[in-house]
Write a structure and sequence with these properties.
By secondary structure, the protein is an alpha+beta fold. It contains one helix and four strands; from the N terminus they run E-E-E-E-H. It is rod-shaped. Bound molecules: zinc ion (ZN).
């Protein structure tokens, strides 16, 4: 049995498609090659997102370390006055 990949439009044997219980014919719409490609690009997207989140967390920590003493100082000044 052959199936056309929705992504690359190549007609391949169903063995080249991953199984998918939700689709009509029981196979994925994308061939294994496309799925692998998708996973790789998604992995990069996810890892770059994680990297940026980690970066934000680090910079936030640095900012907090610098801002908190200032806030504490301002609090002391305003309450003692
Ligand atoms: Zn494909």
């Amino acid at each position: 049995m052959e199936k056309k990949c929705k992504k690359c439009n190549a007609v391949k044997d169903v063995s080249e498609f991953g199984k998918h219980s939700y689709s009509k014919d029981g196979f994925r719409y994308q061939c294994k090659v496309c799925l692998k490609q998708y996973r790789i690009s998604n992995k990069e997207k996810i890892s770059s997102l994680v990297r940026s989140l980690l970066y934000l967390r680090i910079t936030k920590n640095i900012a907090m370390k610098k801002i908190l003493p200032l806030l504490a100082l301002m609090f002391i000044i305003t309450t003692s006055a």
